[in-house]
Design brief:
Largest sheet: 6 strands, mixed
Structural class: alpha/beta
CATH superfamily of the largest domain: ABC transporter type 1, transmembrane domain
CATH class of the largest domain: Mainly Alpha
Radius of gyration: 35 Å
Number of helices: 21
CATH topology of the largest domain: ABC transporter transmembrane region fold
Strand content: 5-15%
Number of strands: 10
Helix content: 55-70%
Distance between the termini: 70 Å
Shape: elongated
Length: 599
């Protein structure tokens, strides 16, 4: 990882944490200063005390001791005080990062979110945080890196002054400087090689890390427990775990390689230190340095070696810790993954909205096969529109495009003559109340599932619950609609499939949007039950625009208009009677299904 990239990612992380901890940068730098300075105060103090004692300046020696002790203890006290604050931060820094990751996932375009590669990278943030100790561990390494940098700077100043004093011995000085430069270059080379290898290692193991996380989650999920027990899947899972653990052995090999590199580097630094010690002794024997100065410079050189090595190691550790944020910062700065558009939706008292599909074609990402081909369709407010056709005909894709979950590959969709991509996404989605085929209920209260965080003063939530036939379900318990669904706690309410469908319909009714969509949420039911739900739902939505999707022709006979899709193309458009009289695709499908739904 390049230094500029490292700085940018560290800066992004700190800026993100500043929202919760405004003074974290100052606190970290102050702590590093307080940790690094006392060592050199003591080192300088000892050298001065020794020179003063050898010249019988006892009063001055006592003053130096006093200043050294007071300043060292004061800095240590301030450092410990700040450290206690930063340790408290460590408990919630990971939550700050993960909440931002979750927020980015929430604002991400649906097609990006649905892409396996994108979500693997998002999951990699969480997996790598767990593997590396999280953000709190990274902050401690950054503080250690800053401490090593401050300490190396102090030591460099002392050693630099030593070299300045001995300029007349330039030949030996040049040799030492060349050796020092060689040590730094060797350290940078080792750092680059280990960092590049580690980054490549993590990229190659993103999939394995995701599989490992999935297996751990699945093993403790009660939904899979029956299948695992009855089908005796233990050996299968054990095989997966063993295969993944084998791939993790490459990290052990990396640690061994990194250890060898660091051993070579420390050996070279030791040679540099030994040569510098010899140089100091030489200067002392020729009377250029006092006994105290020998102690000072010998200690400074030892510290310089230690802290240069510490800078290399802590920077390397920080790069490894920061690896998981590569994907995080990519998403943070990538505006292409977010929805576009800024226009507000026109507020019309007459609700005169008209949608128009103009030559719309579409294929899913990573596929060239068209799911929709040159679709032209217009519908207005107040219509009861049915989209029918066999499975895979493109009905649900139409709804995904309409709701801006995907963008057309070709053509465009207009709302009152304006391309829907130009509207603000949050504003745009307010006009739809969909019930998708794969609807979900969240492990929160029934009321929160209905409101979705948006209280509607104009709607009576209890009346809606009664309309969909759930009043007994949520009045029999003492919590009513405040009861928690599923397994968020031990008292969570488990809804049946039919109850969940009714609650999903109630959610759409409560939103009170001008366009209501029913996208085959009853596909698992028999034809008679589905037709009954559709007709009851039609009564509940009243004069709103309702779009019904089904592969069963009989479920939508009551609609004002029926649009028939086949192989991604719009092939017929009309009401039930006109399409039956035409004896085309709709008629053929209706007759083929008649034995299942005709009374």
């Amino acid at each position: 990882m390049k230094l500029k990239q490292f700085y940018q990612q560290t800066h992004d992380l700190i800026q993100l944490l500043k929202v919760q901890f405004p003074h974290i940068t100052v606190q970290m730098l102050t702590l590093a200063f307080c940790r690094s300075t006392p060592n050199f105060i003591v080192l300088f103090g000892y050298s001065r005390i020794l020179d003063l004692l050898l010249t019988s300046q006892f009063q001055a020696a006592i003053q130096v001791v006093t200043i050294m002790l007071v300043s060292s203890y004061l800095l240590s006290f301030i450092g410990n005080w700040i450290d206690s604050y930063l340790q408290g931060y460590e408990f919630i820094t990971d939550e700050v990062i993960m909440s931002q990751v979750n927020y980015m996932s929430f604002t991400m375009r649906y097609d990006i979110f649905e892409d396996n590669d994108s979500m693997t990278k998002v999951r990699a943030v969480s997996n790598r945080m767990n593997a590396t100790g999280g953000t709190g561990s990274f902050l401690q390494i950054i503080i250690l890196l800053c401490t090593n940098l401050f300490s190396a700077l102090y030591a460099f100043c002392f050693v630099g002054y030593l070299f300045y004093q001995a300029m007349q011995y330039s030949f030996y000085l040049v040799l030492l400087l060349l050796l020092a430069v060689g040590c730094i270059c060797l350290g940078v080379m080792i750092l680059k090689r280990t960092s590049a290898y580690y980054e490549d290692l993590n990229k190659r193991n993103i999939h394995n890390n995701s599989v490992f996380s999935y297996l751990l989650t699945t093993m403790v999920n009660v939904e899979y427990k029956k299948q695992m027990m009855i089908n005796r899947m233990g050996q299968l899972f054990e095989k997966y775990f063993k295969n993944i653990i084998k791939t993790f052995h490459v990290y052990l090999d990396f640690s061994k390689r990194k250890g060898r590199y660091e051993s070579v580097y420390n050996f070279v630094l030791s040679i540099f230190g030994a040569c510098t010690y010899i140089y100091i002794v030489y200067l002392s024997l020729h009377g250029y340095l006092s006994i105290g100065s020998v102690l000072l410079y010998a200690g400074a050189i030892q510290q310089l070696i230690q802290y240069i090595s510490g800078c290399i190691i802590s920077y390397s550790d920080a790069v490894f810790q920061l690896d998981y944020l590569n994907y995080f910062t990519d998403f943070l700065h990538d505006e292409s993954i977010r929805t576009t558009g800024s226009l507000p939706i026109e507020k019309r008292n007459d609700n005169a909205y008209e949608f128009c599909f103009e030559n719309v074609s579409f294929h899913y990402p990573n596929s060239e096969q068209l799911v929709l081909s040159n679709v032209n369709l217009t519908f207005k407010i107040g219509e009861k529109l049915a989209l029918v056709g066999q499975n895979g005909a493109g009905k649900t894709t139409i709804i995904k495009l309409l709701c801006r979950l995907y963008q057309p590959t070709e053509g465009r969709i207009l709302l009152n003559g304006i391309d829907i991509q130009k509207f603000d996404f949050n504003e745009y989605t307010k006009i739809f109340s969909p019930v998708f085929q794969d609807f979900s209920m969240f492990n929160i209260s029934a009321k929160e599932n209905l409101e979705c965080g948006h209280h509607n003063e104009e709607k009576d939530i209890n009346a809606i619950i009664a309309d969909v036939g759930l009043e007994k379900r949520f009045t029999s318990g003492h919590d009513g609609l405040d009861c928690v669904l599923e397994d968020l706690n031990s008292e969570g309410v488990k809804l049946s499939g039919g109850e969940a469908q009714k609650l999903a319909i109630a959610r759409a009714l409560y939103k009170d949007a001008p366009f209501v969509i029913l996208d085959e949420p009853t596909a698992a039911l028999d034809p008679f039950s589905e037709a009954e739900i559709y007709e009851n739902f039609d009564k509940l939505v009243g004069g709103k625009t309702a779009i019904y999707i089904s592969h069963r022709m009989s479920s939508c006979k009551f609609c004002d208009r029926i649009v028939v899709f086949k192989d991604g193309k719009l092939v017929e458009d009309g009401n039930h009677d006109s399409l039956m009289h035409k004896q085309g695709e709709y008629y053929t499908l209706y007759q083929a299904q008649a034995e299942y739904y005709q009374q």
